[in-house]
Amino acid sequence: MADEFQERRRFPRVPVQGPDKGMDGLHEFRLGRRLRLRVVDISVSGALFRTEEPLPLGAKGRLHMLLGSGDFEAQIEVKRQQPAPDGRGAMLGASITPSQPRHHEVLEQFLSRAGS
């Protein structure tokens, strides 16, 4: 199917919340303005987000959220997108770069606990 993403992940992704139930569990993403999004899954270098509106490829912003029991902040760059399965909003594949070493540690701890 032409609309499917070509898999390019180097690291396995871990679900951040339960099954996708729309836009509950929202987090803040700033791209010159605040945008509501839901983190579907996350890995060391990327994440899948659900948003209420599409974003252009290459869009960059800052994500701030509670991940596991730690505060997490990262720079985000949109790499690909497609319509959400229910036709409302979009699914965005993005690269993530933790803002500080302590945020990288929070991510690593979350992934190691979720993977065990």
Tell me briefly what this model is.
By secondary structure, the protein is mainly β.
Record the SSE blueprint.
Elements: E1 14-15, E2 26-30, E3 34-42, E4 46-51, E5 60-67, E6 70-83, E7 90-98, H1 101-115
Task: Count every helix, treating DSSP H or I runs of 4 or more residues as helices.
Answer: 1
CATH architecture: Beta Barrel
Helix content: 10-25%
Please write the string of helix (H) and strand (E) elements.
EEEEEEEH
Strand numbers in spatial order across the main sheet: 2-3-4-7-6-5
Query: What percent of residues are in strands?
Result: over 45%
CATH class call: Mainly Beta
Number of domains: 1
Radius of gyration from the alpha-carbon trace, in angstroms: 13 Å
Beta strands, count: 7
- Looking at this structure, what is the CATH superfamily? predicted glycosyltransferase like domains
Poorly predicted residue ranges: 18-24
What does this 3D model show about the protein?
13% of the residues lie in helices and 46% in strands. With 116 residues, the protein is mostly beta strands. Mean pLDDT is 81; it is low at 18-24. It starts with 13 loop residues before the first strand and ends with a helix. A six-stranded antiparallel barrel has the order 2-3-4-7-6-5. The chain has a single domain (14-115), classed as Beta Barrel (Thrombin, subunit H). The protein has one helix and seven strands. The longest helix has 15 residues, at 101-115.
Keyphrases for this structure?
116 residues, six-stranded antiparallel beta barrel, 1 helix, mainly beta, globular
